[in-house]
Amino acid sequence: MGWRLRRKKKDMPGGLWTKCSACAQMIYTKDLQENQAVCTECNFHHTMHGRRRIEITADPGTFQEHFSDLQPKDRLGFVDSIPYTEKIAKAQEKTGNADACLAGLCEIGGHPIALAVLDFSFMGGSMGEVVGEKIARTVELAEGKGIPVVIFSASGGARMHEGAISLMQMAKTCGALQHYRERGGFSISVLTNPTTGGVTASFAMVCDMTIAEPQALVGFAGPRVIQNTIRQDLPEGFQRSEFLKDKGQVDLIVSRNEMRDKLALLLSYAENRPKATA
Amino acid sequence: MAKKKTKTSSPAALPFEQPIEDVRSRLTELEELAAQTTHDLSEELAFYRERLERLTNEIYSELSSWNRVQVARHPNRPLTTDYISNICDDWVELFGDGVFGDDSAMATGLATIGRHKVLLIGQRKGRDTKERLACNFGSAHPEGYRKALRKMKMAERMGLPIVCLINTPGAYPGVAAEERGQARAIAENIHEMFGLKVPIVCLVIGEGGSGGALGIAIGDKVAMMENAWYSVISPEGCASILWHSAEGKEKAAEALKLTASDLLGFGIVDEVVPEPVGGAHAHPKDAMQIVKGKIESWLDELLAMPADLMLEARYQKFRHIAQVQSSVESQALGAASHRGVDTPASRLASPSEIHGEG
Fold it and tell me: What pLDDT, on a 0 to 100 scale, did the predictor assign at position B240?
């Protein structure tokens, strides 16, 4: 459940050149940014910041942020190398966000939806009570308005620093989605690199439709945990989107530059869904 | 499985139990002696019995979080199979997920517990090496979770309440498990359990290891045995992430706040089921009878509720667990320590409150 996936140099700092963590090629940073953090050499879809994700997904100017004032709390008094409260403060300073989820209302191809995006740059996109609460509220917002919900995931899983409280976010988010589905909801989950642990084992896998970005690492246990358990090399392409598609775990793979159009198309197919009966 | 009585003495004593074990063996010697001699040893016997009780009480009233993890994993602690043979009548085991295979780590079957006919789902660890291997040490594969869900849906159609006994170090992290969709299997169970229109009671009888536990732990009543643990990660897993070794497991157990009274305080469990002093492993039959009584009364309570209200209450409970609030909302509510529906902060249990009527 470790949110602490090995931090590769994928944050794209201010340097002129960025080394692609997948193909090791040096890419002109500006090209990489213009290509939505997709490697121009090998097409690897790098992890991207939540705000930027919203920019390239929502119709321009339509995003209205909600629930941005929810603040994480250190209910356990958790201390590892530094207290959890300091960790939160650092992540907030780094990202400018209160926690690892951004949420709100927007349109995609003119379809009004509720949108939630996990931000990997905030403590590995890990889910504590704020993330769980925001996902649940986003789903409720969609339920109230009778619109679809789209959730982008990028997360190492449940946030260890919140113990069983973070585990319960898996229950909370799945419960909200079940409640919503019973009342005519329609949900799309988009799995991006990386999505593992308690996020995969909850809301990211119970939406009506599951999309993955190419080559995204998606799994329950992290590859290192599995390797430590079985003490064998992992198969080629293990836990990547294409592998998941082969194994019947995702509905389709959509590359980043086609995502907005494809989501708009998929949403248009759900326009005539039966409305809430409850 | 039924061997625990024959070896109550040494191999199973936990390090912190050693003083208890010493007094117990003295007492046993004395009892043997008393049986052979005509001398009246009743005074000595009474002394050692009293001492044994006092020492057990003392030690068990001051268990650390790590001690509780040790008790939860004690080799003589009652397992799902023991509950099946001790508190269930007319057990009919049912197998298979209907698609891929059967998973011995997840026992499912029809059972009669006192006055109630139920579907019992229990994570199975196995007692000896052969059983443990067959049950994968209590770590289920996706087919285990799918098997549980398939039987739960069947129970819903049959109008049977569901009893889930949770005891797993975690869902299995392996290649085959990933290939067959471990994450989705767990997620779907959590999701679907919110919609099942029959009462569900969940009891963590030993280890509540993360998503692997939660995959059968959405219920109208969620309870823990006094010496069970339940958290997002095992103490060893937490220690290896934080300090790159399992050495810090004691510290991690403390930091994770994973004991039954911690979780009662957070409002994550509704009730803590007391164990006989000295732990369920020392008095397995008594411990299982307490559980049986609890399950019967929980089911009485839940079966009296209209299904729609029960479902809404089930959802609201998990929806508002350890509720976070926006700053605006908390201002509106004043500085009082409001934490959402039904999770008063004051429920942090002291040992005497642990039995809580929930």
Answer: 87
For chain A positions 140-159, those within 8 Å of chain B (CB to CB) are 158-159
Residues A235-244 have pLDDT tens digits of 889 999 999 9
Query: Residues A62, A65, A71, CA angle at the centre, nearest 5°?
Result: 170
Assign A233 a pLDDT band (cuts: 50, 70, 90).
Answer: confident
A211 touches chain B (CB under 8 A): no
Residue A219 and residue A97 in one domain: yes
> pLDDT tens digits, residue range B32-81?
998 888 888 889 899 999 999 999 999 999 999 999 999 999 999 999 99
Phi, psi of A269 (to 5 degrees): -70, -20
Total of domains in chain B: 2
Residue B39 is given by DSSP the state S
Chain A CB contacts of B238 below 8 Å: 160
Q: Which of A30, A7, A5, A36 is nearest to A18 (CA)?
A: A30
Structural contact between residues A141 and A114, judged by C-beta atoms closer than 8 angstroms:
yes
Cβ of B183 within 8 Å of Cβ of A201? The answer is yes
Examine residue B154 and state whether it is found in any structural domain, yes or no: yes
Range of the domain at A174: 48-271
In terms of domains, do B92 and B232 share one?
A: yes
Say which residue, B117 or B340, is predicted with more confidence.
B117
The pLDDT tens digits of the residues spanning A3-18 come to 444 444 445 456 899 9
Task: Tell the burial category of B2 from Cβ atoms under 10 Å away from its Cβ (0-12, 13-18, 19+).
Answer: exposed
Candidate from A133, A238, A248 with C-beta closest to B324: A133
Provide the number of structural domains found in chain A: 2
Residues A35 and A58 in one domain: no
Based on the fold, state whether residues B151 and B241 are members of the same structural domain: yes
Instruction: Please indicate, yes or no, whether residues B220 and B256 belong to a single structural domain of this protein.
Output: yes
Beta carbons within 10 angstroms of residue B185's beta carbon: 27
Q: How many CB pairs under 8 A join A and B?
A: 188
Q: What one-character-per-residue DSSP string does B168-182 give? A: ES-S--SHHHHHTTH
Using alpha carbons only, give the angle B184, B185, B191 rounded to the nearest 5 degrees.
80
How far away is chain B from the Cα of A127, in angstroms, using its nearest Cα?
11
d(CA B12, CA B224): 23
Please indicate, yes or no, whether the overall pTM of this predicted structure exceeds 0.95: no
**pLDDT in the model for residue B342:** 35
Pick among B191, B207, B266 to test the A interface (most A CBs inside 10 A): B191
- Residue A124 belongs to a domain: yes
Q: Which domain holds residue B49?
A: 16-30+43-62
Strand ordering across the sheet containing A101-108: A64-66, A101-108, A111-118, A149-155, A187-195, A209-212, A252-253
- Residue among A239, A257, A244, A158 nearest A203 (CA): A158
Residues of chain B contacting A230 with CB distance shorter than 8 Å: 174-175
